[in-house]
Amino acid sequence: IASTTSSCSSYGCPTTFLLTFKNTFSYNRYWEACTVVHQMHSKWLDVGVALSAFHLQSNKFDRVRPAALGEYPHITTALRERERVDETTLESLQKLLDEDDPVDSLRTRFQKRYSKADVQGMQRHPSLSSKLQPVSASADPAVYARLDGGMDKDHPSLFLQELLHLLSLTSAVALSTLRNDVEGVESPLIQYKPGEPWPPVDPDAQDAQIRKDFYSAEDQCCSGVRQTLRFLFGSSRDEKHRTLYNAARPFRVLGGVSDAEVQLLQSARGPYAKVVLCSMWLQEFITREHLAGSTGKVAPPIVSRMFQFTSDGMIGYNHARKIAFIPFPFPHAQITAFFILVSMVYIPFLMLSYVNNIAFAAILNFFTVLCFAGLYEVSRELENPFVNVPNDLPLNNFQAQFNEALLVLYAGYHPDAWWQTEQELHDSKHSTTSKTAKEIPSPETAPTDAAATAVALSTVTEESIHENPTSPTKDAFQDEENAKRSSLVWAGDEEEARNKWVEEKNAKQEEALEEGRTESS
After folding, report:
1. Where is coiled-coil annotated (predicted)?
2. What count of other Cβ atoms lies within 10 Å of the Cβ of residue 109?
């Protein structure tokens, strides 16, 4: 018995050690692949987010850009509050979840709620849906919401369109090269359609035709047992068959892919060169647009961070490429496979030596060998998570979610970022009536709220200054403009704002009259 125990230990210890080692490092490779792919997308998405924010500060958006808080540093007592008008209750949520498709039901309810013409109901509900129309006015005299973010949803900025296309293209090419297609074969890239269903994460949920393409023509003529055996021994995963299967699962790119882009990508030799080419296109676009003023007045050192983010994304891609193109060490994989094969022969004799009941020994032998062989096959599936279909990473799903994240950048400014109503903005920008300083209302007829104060003080225009440049109207105009700025508040103490306006107005009028008497004398 002692000799039998020693022989079991002499064989079982190295076998379990090799199998544990291979499973551990195969799992580490799998998890590292997940990590670096998400890191790659995170960095490239940072490029899009930052450049979109910079672009909104360019001259193109001067007419729609919200007022900055830094322009009114004297406003220190206002309270910025938000409220919900139509909140989702537990009862309504339970009712929606009980329906056949809760996701579509929730989306439909959201669109119905926020597409109503009731301005009051839309005032405090931020939304990024491209189907929603801008609010024409607001019941709040100080703050109004624009659900379009100040952007034209039908004709988005060309800068943003090109930026998002290059980011989506770079990601799609990078992910397609990780799947190890046949060298020289065109990368499967097609146009992305916003709002289409997510690519399935579970391979069994894929289209039947796609799953059928996984098997070669020879396998389709074979029995199910033979297909299983060919799959277990890896003979059904040749390079040609894998390329055809990947072609049935193309990556989708925002804006589509042109023939010129495909031709240049095909001329790049090797998968690494293709990704570098896309990265160069992206960085060249950033440089060209920054020099042309598309990033506003953002300082060059800040813009240089975009190149750093692009480089960080390439670091993530190279880490993923390391896993995809460098296999598990061959000697270790071979010695582990050899010991697993020996186990299939050795364990039956071991069970017969310990178990007197032949039937029970056969059952115990089956499950023991199944455990060893199963763990070994699991390690094989995990060691290359980009290639080993159907247990590979859902790269198509990752690309679709990356595209949807990029589409959010079309949203524009925060919906509650505007202070005045649209009518007030229209009056302040398009007023053509020339009025003098004496048309400013007297203290007895002072406006009763902060918003009306701002409109009243804005009636003095520069046109009256040009008509009489020597009159005190110019100084009065400047002073009243300052008073106008000091009177802009979000909400709160209207009485205090009105008193402050009266005091400033009386002081400025007295100064203007005194200057007029001095010039007359």
Report:
1. none
2. 15
